[in-house]
Amino acid sequence: MNKSIKLLSTGLILGLAFLQSCKKDPKPNVPPINDGELITTLILNAKDSATGQVESFKFRDQDGEGGNAPTQFDSIILKSGHSYAFEVLMLDESKAETDTISIEVLKEGEDHLFVYTITNLNLNIMPSDSDNNGLAIGLKSIWKAIASGNGKVKTTLKHQPGIKNGDPALGETDIEIEFDCRIE
User: Fold this and answer.
1) Is residue 6 part of a domain?
2) Dist CA 121 CA 111 (whole Å)
3) φ and ψ at 126, to 5 degrees?
4) Predicted confidence band at 70 (pLDDT cuts at 50, 70, 90)?
5) Is 132 inside a domain boundary?
6) How many structural domains are present in the chain?
7) Would the pLDDT of 112 be above 90?
8) In three state form, how does the secondary structure of the chain look?
9) Residues near 85 by Cβ (< 8 Å), separated by ≥ 6?
10) What's the confidence (pLDDT) of residue 111?
């Protein structure tokens, strides 16, 4: 009987070793790949909270970054003392059927962040939307034009899959446009 137990235990050990060798190595914990979007058109729609008037400021580059020069590049004009509800609309018009990239960015809000950089203007910009983790997306924002002046507003869409924490320095840049801006 002792021999039977030894043979059984040896068989179990060999069987377990064989099964263990058949297991595949687990994949390392790699964040999923989430490609950046092609954006040929960026439209900033602004609704003046005082008058209800809506204006659109556009950037259009039909072939995307590089290649041909942009075909439209508006300046942003705001009124001093007014607040505006801004909404970003992004399109990929490089295909036969226009793709609304804003919808994808909203769906993937945990992977995207709009960053607004103001130069030489008395203007405040605050994001008014957030992702499922409570972090800003920036597709919607409130702009408060405090005083007259000329400057620039850089609009940057950061692509931050798996690393978004509110830090605008993280991730790849999907699009970056610096608009001339005048507050009258």
Assistant:
1) no
2) 29
3) -125, 125
4) confident
5) yes
6) 1
7) yes
8) CHHHHHHHHHHHHHHHHHHHHHCCCCCCCCCCCCCCCCCCEEEEEEEECCCCCEEEEEEECCCCCCCCCCCEECCEEECCCCEEEEEEEEEECCCCCCEEHHHHHHHCHHHEEEEEEEECCCEEEEECCECCCCCECCCEEEEEECCCEEEEEEEEEEECCCCCCCCCCCCEEEEEEEEEEEEC
9) 46, 47, 49, 128, 140, 141, 142
10) 97
Residue 25 has pLDDT above 90, yes or no: no
Averaged pLDDT, 80-90: 98
* Domain presence at residue 78: yes
Q: Which of 78, 81, 91 is nearest to 184 (CA)?
A: 78
Say which CATH number the domain at 85 has. 2.60.40
- Cα dihedral 31, 35, 41, 43, rounded to 10, equals -10
What confidence score (pLDDT) does residue 37 get?
Answer: 63
Q: How far apart are the first and last CA of the chain?
A: 100
Q: Above pLDDT 90, what percent of the chain?
A: 72
- The answer to whether residue 36 is domain-embedded is no
Please state, in angstroms and rounded to a whole number, the distance separating the CA atoms of residues 183 and 180.
10
Give the β-pairing of 76-78 and 172-183. parallel
The residue count of the chain comes to: 184
Structural domain that includes position 53: 41-183
Q: Using the predicted structure, report yes or no on whether residue 15 has a pLDDT greater than 90.
A: no
